[in-house]
Amino acid sequence: MINDKTMMALTLASAIFSLILGLAVMWSSPFRSSNRAVALVLLLETAWLGCVYRAMGTAFLPLGEKLVELEWWFRANAIVVSFLPVSIWLLMDVNSRNADSGSGVFGAAFPALSLGVFCALISTSDRFVYHDVRGYLKRGEAYYIYIVVCLSAYVITIFKTWTSIARCRGIRRLELQFIALNSGGAAVIIGVLNAIGNYSNVRAFNKSSVVLVLAATVIAAWALLFYRVFSAREMLLQVVRRLSFVAVLSFGAYSIWIVSSVVIAEPFSLLLGIGVCGPLAVWSDRKLRLWLDADGERKLSNVRRLLLEIARAEWRPAHLIEQLEVFLCMEFGAHSCRLCLDHSDAENPVVSLIRKRGRAYLSLCELGWATPESLSRRKHRPGFSDLQHVLDSEKIGLIISVPRNSPTPSLIVALGMKRDEWPYTFPEVRHLQGLALVVDNLLTRSRLVNHASSRSRLDNMAIMSKGLAHDLRNLITPVSSFVAQSQGKFSPGSTAADVQAAAWRSIGMVDRYIRDALSYTDDIEPRFEATDLASVCSDSREVLAGRAHGRGVIVMLNCAPMEKLAMDGGLIQRLMTNLIANGVDACAPGQSVEVKCASPNDGWIRIQVRDNGCGIPPENLARIFEPHFTTKQTGNGERGFGIGLTVCRKIVVLHGGSISVESELGRGTVFTVDLPAAQTAPFPRGMPEEVRLFDSNVTPVVRS
């Protein structure tokens, strides 16, 4: 049986713990209204526990002094309890309205505050408690009025909370559920314990309400303030599982201790009970976890099989990504889902916004996952504010990075808000993390399969192009020699002269095709030297000056001042010449091509070639970098061969960079080249697709 001194020590410890918890709540996020409201509840609870502790201490005083002290602390305890419904009302109102205005919150809580003040005044009345003829304290009429008013205020507060639940959505509804269930459940249990204690005259039941109130408050603080969000059902399962563990360990050990103490010495009987029930409690907890699927492994295993079936049916990365996004939307009931395969993908709206806010990206890598609710509950940091802005602006309900806590994640999964407007709970976060690992592996496999297929196709085309180029060179040599020898032998304007000129142009076209084909198939070793990028771009413009003038197209150059960069000047000039030539050919007379070179940023150089020409059809945009694919029927009077952009991609890859394109029909096209500002060694030759396994180096974007 718990004696008075033990109960006093337990009450004092509860008061100290409640005070520390209240201060910690305020320290964690002092400007969040929910934290302030919870801290107020905890501080009032601390004061109440302090009054209970001092009232218990009067048992050790002389009778006369005891009665005076007991009456004083009894009234003080009643005053503190008068304002507990007010604090719960404030907590309910703050969570239901998400209010940060102090005047608005206290204005809404004015009815409960008025009842609290009324109860406090009643507790100071002479008829609240009084001394009878024998000198003992008795409860007067005012005490029972006080009880009725306090209970009414408490019932009104709980009823108001329940009615507010129906009007709220998302995290607010979840938090109000906790407040109502926690407060109502604690009140019912405390009432039952006190009724049992008064009926049986076993005061241990009455005294246990102190611990119960503290436990209920701790659970409420955990549910409302901890960054891991749980639903009421999930929280109940957690509590049941832990109570089951404690019950098996405590009652089992106590029973064995009592039974075995008859035949075994006292210390050894207790050790026997702990030794037997400890493993039993662990075993029962493990079985209960499996039965309740507390870790979500059974659910994850079932969904994993469905993902594998989707991956077996579709190996193309783009189509697989679409199917996986639809599947994840259905699995989590989200409005949208985005799989961001590489944080360097500048055209992905989520990744682009995160890159603009560098601290947001670092925060996501540090946390591994984030929801708007979890960020609002964490201690304020600048990076968290940036990440919160990304989630709010893109209407993201949950975002995770894979691998978790990696500084360079290979996959970012962003789920939109839920259709039912509920927040994502922590078990759902863990479920998505498990699925994201599977998705990352499936996409890696898909990219490997696609890479192998693409590499095989390109190798075959390279062999064919190289053989064809050599054959054409051998065949065209005598023809070009004959045409060269006949140069100037025909009178100008004659039919023979026109045929000779046409033959000479055709020989030039074939020669350019041979050169481009061999450039694509040959192993090129770039020579990195200090190169003036502005001069290279200027030389490319000069090379194409006649071509641009003939079509009436203006080529503008806008290069920021910068130091010389490590690059192969010859290859970069060829890259720029091809891109500018494509822009000139796409423009009508009077239109323009702009070349822009941005200064180094975070170790990267960005080059953009923008034209306001005809644009590229969406169905062709994804294929423009494929060898021998062309829709250019004319170009300086010549049909294209579909080698130029393939060579451009190879040059960019050899420099360790990436090239992307975005186009809009009738508005123009923009080619963007990102190159590292510093080079240490050449990138692998002849294998452009293997330079970056997780980046195709080509990002086509169609603007609607």
If strands are numbered along the chain, what order do they take across the biggest sheet? 8-10-11-13-12-14
Strand content: 5-15%
The 3D shape can be described as: elongated
Terminal residue distance:
77 Å
Mean pLDDT equals 77
**Which CATH architecture of the largest domain?**
Up-down Bundle
Low-confidence stretches: 343-347, 634-639, 683-704
Largest sheet: 6 strands, mixed
The total strand number stands at 14
Can you describe what's shown?
The chain is of the alpha+beta class. The protein folds into four domains: 4-226, Rhodopsin 7-helix transmembrane proteins (Rhopdopsin 7-helix transmembrane proteins, Up-down Bundle); 227-294; 298-450, 2-Layer Sandwich (Beta-Lactamase), CATH 3.30.450; 523-702, 2-Layer Sandwich (Heat Shock Protein 90), CATH 3.30.565. It has 24 helices and 14 strands. The strands form four sheets. It has a six-stranded mixed β-sheet with strand order 8-10-11-13-12-14, covered by helices on one side. It has a four-stranded antiparallel β-sheet with strand order 3-6-5-4, sandwiched between helices. Strands 1-2 form a two-stranded antiparallel ribbon. A hairpin with an 8-residue loop joins strand 5 and strand 6 (411-416). Helix 2 (33-57) runs antiparallel to helix 4 (84-97) and helix 14 (349-356) packs antiparallel against helix 17. The longest helix has 60 residues, at 426-485. The termini are far apart. The model is unreliable at 343-347, 634-639 and 683-704 (pLDDT under 50).
